[in-house]
Design goal:
alpha/beta, Rossmann fold, UDP-N-acetylmuramoyl-L-alanine:D-glutamate ligase, six-stranded parallel sheet, 11 strands
Length: about 270
């Protein structure tokens, strides 16, 4: 699993204990952090208790709802991407207490930043978009693997990222990132960020299309100038994002591929 000294001595509240939530609890405990964990499903809480009874006995894990528990000293709320923070009361509590709301991708970003500050170089390719991001992620991962590079595919695809063994120096992380995950991420500076397209989706979660577009845009606003943004500019929202990027911009377009070549694709043009 991915652990980090960055988490050591911190106190996190983890909300949602599906696969990514359980992996987050495991990684934080292994990093010598204290954890408060909660899921509305009592069977899930029971499984957590059975798995980590020793940590509970030592006071390193508390199974309690942070909405009613003592949250003094909490460093961050780590929430499942599926929790609708625009409607969940945790948002108001976090604002009142000045506690950040993050996701497991942000924890990875913090661990990754620590590696880079200490000379370990593992590039990150982040892929987002309304359609095609899973296919693009899998294809990039396949190309890197076939080229003989250590690589890991994660994020919104495959196993939870924090549950994976860390890559060696020079390994490449290929991450599919949903708008929900990007909403909860604040320090991920992708070496290459890819945008496939933007069409209306998840509008209830983001308060309308502009909120959804801005969620996608954040991935590119987090990039620093030495890095690369690869953006398909076939739709106007993607064109707007391309103009905001501080990274080296590479645009792609359906017209880059000849129509006669597209006809020969198995899926058609």
């Amino acid at each position: 699993m991915i652990t980090s000294p960055v988490f050591s001595g911190q106190f996190y509240a983890v909300l949602g204990l599906a696969r990514s939530g359980m992996a987050t609890v495991a990684a934080l405990l292994a990093s010598d952090a204290k954890v408060m964990a909660w899921d509305n499903n009592p069977e899930t809480r029971d499984r957590l208790q059975q798995q980590y009874q020793e940590a509970i006995d030592k006071g390193r894990l508390v199974i309690s709802d942070p909405m009613i528990a003592d949250i003094f000293g909490i460093s961050a709320f780590v929430v499942s991407p599926g929790i609708p923070i625009n409607r969940h009361p945790i948002a108001a509590l976090a604002k009142e207490r000045g506690i950040p709301i993050i996701g497991d991708i942000e924890l990875f970003a913090q661990a990754h930043g620590f590696w880079e500050r200490h000379g370990r170089r593992c590039p990150v390719v982040g892929i987002t978009g309304t359609n095609g991001k899973s296919t693009t992620t899998a294809l990039i991962h396949h190309i890197l693997k076939e080229a003989g590079l250590p690589t890991l595919m994660g994020g919104n695809i495959g196993l939870p990222l924090l549950a994976a063994d860390p890559l060696p120096d020079g390994g490449v992380y290929v991450l599919e990132l949903s708008s929900y995950q990007i909403d909860l991420t604040f320090t991920l500076d992708c070496d290459i960020a890819v945008l496939t397209n933007i069409t209306p989706d998840h509008l209830d979660r983001h308060g309308g299309f502009e909120g959804y577009r801005k969620a996608k845009e954040r991935l590119f606003l987090l990039q620093s100038s030495p890095h690369y943004a690869v953006i398909a500019t076939d739709d106007i929202p993607s064109q707007v994002i391309a103009k905001q990027s501080a990274a080296h911009l590479v645009t792609v377009h359906a017209d880059n591929i000849l129509a006669e070549d597209q006809v020969n694709w198995s899926g058609g043009p």
